[in-house]
C-alpha cells in the first residue's frame, strides 16, 4: 500500500505499537501499479492484503485460495461530479454527455448506474478513459468525471472550483455502490493462523478508531512515512477526514469497523457478475467470513 490517509489505520496501529501489543511483528509492504496484492497473499509473500472487493472476487474465481476477513470501508467513495453549467442534475441528464472514469476495474459502479437509467454506454453517451489528474474535467473536455470523495473531489476544490459550482451523483445514494478497501488472507494460512489474523484485525481496528478520533495525529504518522513532496499535509488531512466517513458512516457503530455487511457484499458481487468482472455468480458464503472479526472483537 501507499503511505497515504487511505490506509491510515494500519500505519497508526504500527506506529502506536498496537500490533506489538498483540505479539505481532508487522511489516507494511509497499503497493504500486505492478504489485497485485492477491498474488502476493496467494503465494505467501504477504499474509494479509488490502484491495477492493471487485478486485478480490475474480482472483477467487480464478482459483486463488483467498477469503475476505474484514471490510474496512463500509461505503463507496466514488462520485460522479459535473459543473453546474453542464446541466447534469441527476443521472437522467447523462445522455449524450462525455463521462470519464479511470477504467481498469474502477468503472463497474458507473456501468451499473447507466444500466439503472437505461443508458447504453456505447451509444447513449460517451464513456471515456479519464487520466489520474482532473485536467480533462477542469478544461471542460469531460462533462462528468469520476472522483473519490477522499481524493479527486478535493483536487477539484483545491484547483479553485467551489462546491456550489458542482453537481454530485453519489453511488451509495443510487444503490449501485460496491465495497472498496477490505482485508483478505490466504485460506490455507488462515486455517492454521486464525488467532494471529484476529490479533492483526483487533490491532488494525484500534488503529482505525484512533486515526478517526485524532486525524491530525494520524496525518503526522502518514507524513513521516510518505515520500517527501508526494503530497501535502493539508491534502492528507482532508483525505483522512473523508476516509473516516467511509470507515464509520453516519449512524455506524465504530465498534463494528471491519465487519462485512452480507447484503452489501452480495450487491458488490451481483454488479461484478452483471458486468463480467466474474463469469459466474460468486459463492458469497465462501468469499468472505465474519469469523475473524467476531474473534477479534469478542476479547
- Sequence stretches where pLDDT stays below 50 over 5 or more residues: none
**Total of helices:** 15
Structural class: alpha/beta
Largest sheet: 5 strands, mixed
> What's the rounded overall pLDDT mean?
94
Q: What's the helical proportion of residues? A: 40-55%
Report the portion of residues in β strands: 5-15%
Morphology call: globular
| H/E series | HHHEHEEEHEHEHEHEHHHHHHH
Head-to-tail CA distance between termini: 28 Å
Radius of gyration using CA atoms only: 19 Å
**Number of E strands:** 8
Strand order of the largest sheet: 5-4-6-3-7
Based on the model shown, name its key terms.
8 strands, alpha/beta, 5-stranded mixed beta sheet, 299 residues, 3-stranded antiparallel beta sheet, 15 helices
Outline of the structure:
This protein has 299 residues and is of the alpha/beta class. The protein has 15 helices and eight strands.
Structural account:
- The chain is of the alpha/beta class and 299 residues long.
- Helix content is 42%, strand content 14%.
- The chain has 15 helices and eight strands.
- The protein has a five-stranded mixed beta sheet.
- It is globular and about 55 Å long.
- The mean pLDDT is 94.
Amino acid at each position: 500500500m501507499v503511505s497515504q490517509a487511505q490506509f491510515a489505520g494500519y500505519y497508526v496501529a504500527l506506529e502506536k505499537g498496537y500490533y506489538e501489543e498483540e505479539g505481532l511483528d508487522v511489516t507494511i509492504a509497499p503497493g504500486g501499479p505492478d504489485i497485485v496484492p492477491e498474488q502476493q497473499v496467494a503465494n505467501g509473500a504477504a499474509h494479509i492484503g488490502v484491495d477492493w472487493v471487485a478486485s478480490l472476487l475474480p482472483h477467487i474465481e480464478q482459483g486463488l485460495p483467498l477469503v475476505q476477513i474484514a471490510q474496512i470501508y463500509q461505503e463507496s467513495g466514488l462520485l460522479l461530479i459535473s459543473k453546474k453549467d453542464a446541466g447534469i442534475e441527476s443521472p437522467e441528464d447523462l445522455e449524450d454527455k462525455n463521462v470519464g472514469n479511470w477504467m481498469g476495474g474502477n468503472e463497474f459502479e458507473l456501468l451499473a448506474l447507466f444500466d439503472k437509467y437505461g443508458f447504453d454506454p456505447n451509444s447513449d453517451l460517451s464513456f471515456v478513459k479519464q487520466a489520474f489528474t482532473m485536467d480533462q474535467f477542469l478544461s471542460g473536455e469531460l462533462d462528468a468525471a469520476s472522483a473519490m470523495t477522499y481524493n479527486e473531489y478535493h483536487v477539484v476544490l483545491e484547483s479553485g472550483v467551489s462546491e456550489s459550482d458542482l453537481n454530485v451523483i453519489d453511488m451509495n445514494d443510487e444503490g449501485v455502490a460496491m465495497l472498496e478497501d477490505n482485508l483478505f488472507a490466504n485460506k490455507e494460512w488462515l486455517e492454521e493462523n486464525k488467532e494471529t489474523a484476529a490479533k492483526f484485525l483487533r490491532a488494525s481496528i484500534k488503529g482505525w478508531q484512533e486515526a478517526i478520533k485524532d486525524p491530525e495525529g494520524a496525518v503526522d504518522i502518514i507524513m513521516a512515512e510518505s515520500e517527501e513532496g508526494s503530497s501535502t499535509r493539508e491534502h492528507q488531512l482532508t483525505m483522512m477526514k473523508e476516509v473516516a466517513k467511509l470507515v464509520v458512516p453516519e449512524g455506524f457503530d465504530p465498534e463494528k469497523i471491519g465487519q462485512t455487511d452480507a447484503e452489501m457484499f452480495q450487491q458488490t458481487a451481483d454488479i461484478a457478475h452483471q458486468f463480467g468482472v466474474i463469469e459466474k455468480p460468486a459463492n458469497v458464503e465462501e468469499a468472505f467470513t465474519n469469523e475473524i472479526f467476531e474473534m477479534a472483537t469478542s476479547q
